[in-house]
Structure of RNA polymerase sigma factor SigA:
Amino acid sequence: MQELVRRGRTHGSVDAVALRTACEQAQVQDAKRLKAVVRGLATAGIAVEEPVPAARAVAATSAKTRPAAKAVVADGSTEAPAARKPARAKSAPKAAPAAKAAAGAKVASAKVAAPKTATPDGEVAEDEVVLEDVELEDVEPAVAEVEAVAGELEEDADKPAKPAAAADEATEESVGFVYSDADDDDAPAQQVVTAGATADPVKDYLKQIGKVALLNAEQEVELAKRIEAGLFAEERLNAGITMEPKLRRELEWIASDGRRAKNHLLEANLRLVVSLAKRYTGRGMLFLDLIQEGNLGLIRAVEKFDYTKGYKFSTYATWWIRQAITRAMADQARTIRIPVHMVEVINKLARVQRQMLQDLGREPTPEELAKELDMTPEKVVEVQKYGREPISLHTPLGEDGDSEFGDLIEDSEAVVPADAVSFTLLQEQLHQVLDTLSEREAGVVSMRFGLTDGQPKTLDEIGKVYGVTRERIRQIESKTMSKLRHPSRSQVLRDYLD
């Protein structure tokens, strides 16, 4: 009976034959108990479907007909009253009372005669259901079970239904866009729907790759053979050779199977990449970025794996994964890119320095490192300089972080106020000295030393300006410099040499 209730809740209805079988197994034959069972099913929204061949006969026992007890002939001694002409069977949702009566009549009877109607002469005509009387046995345990099932159904029916607003809300959550009449432009408001995702992307990734089972050596060899066959099939297909359609379809299937085997081998070894990427964390790259670069090395390992060598795939793939991660760190981990060969030297120097620190109990000197690495002390200092990490000028300093690292660095290009004043006075004094010379002499000296625009000019350039030769410009320059060296002109400028 419990199985019947569960099946009815799942499908929304139960078969009348199944109901009769369940009642017979539970030894429920009392009409009152049967009505309680059918009423409990109807209350829970479970309809009783009638079998198609007996639909007309069952419909005759609708709610408007007389009780089934009056249609029972006991040992053939009592004449059955004439029954009304049965109505057509109604739809399942509207025929719940008829279904209850029909089910009760079917279960209570031990034998159902052919549908006939009793005539006034005592003959049995069509459209009548004749039921033999059945002796009721002691069914108290079964009745108790049926009452428990009916009570459970009634309790479920008495529970308050889910509000319409909650149903609408659940419907809105299942879609990506929600339309609202309150929107002015009737534009859909997109919602982010996440199915099982968490705030930790690493955890989500590990959970996803953990669904694929690990492979043993035999499975790896089998997948490698399929990959090899797929590559051979792709080569034949891409060769442009004319072949039969059947052979082409077979080669296409083999190539597709090879790609599936490649994906399977990749997905089964993604956890190997994660275990190797953990060793390189904290060196300038995010953990997920390290995993991604390691996956590229894993793809390369799958393409280069030779199963005929006899070793496992993980042993071979480890080297490709490490190479991909270290190359990515050399190219991407630093703000200023350093060549790969220099990164290897820096890493070697760091390892030797850590080892000597443990052995000596102090920081090793450049000379000691140079002796250990077989290089000059100057080279060691240079490599250490390359290995330094750049620091941002906006790095906060102090406990409160109210100052930045850039505040403590001197700006060598900044103009000191005292120097700016001295430079301005020097320009004024220089112009006063040049005013004591002729226009050509002052112009030649100004252009020769860049006193006007800061760009010194050659003798040829100055000669083209004045339309004379470079030798004449040299003579004018020499004569002018002799005049400027006279104490009457140079004394006012000599004080700025200090």
About this structure: Residues 52-147, 152-195 have pLDDT under 50 and may be disordered. The beta strands are 13-15, 47-49, 72-73, 116-118, 124-126, 131-132, 177-178, 189-190, 396-397, 403-404.
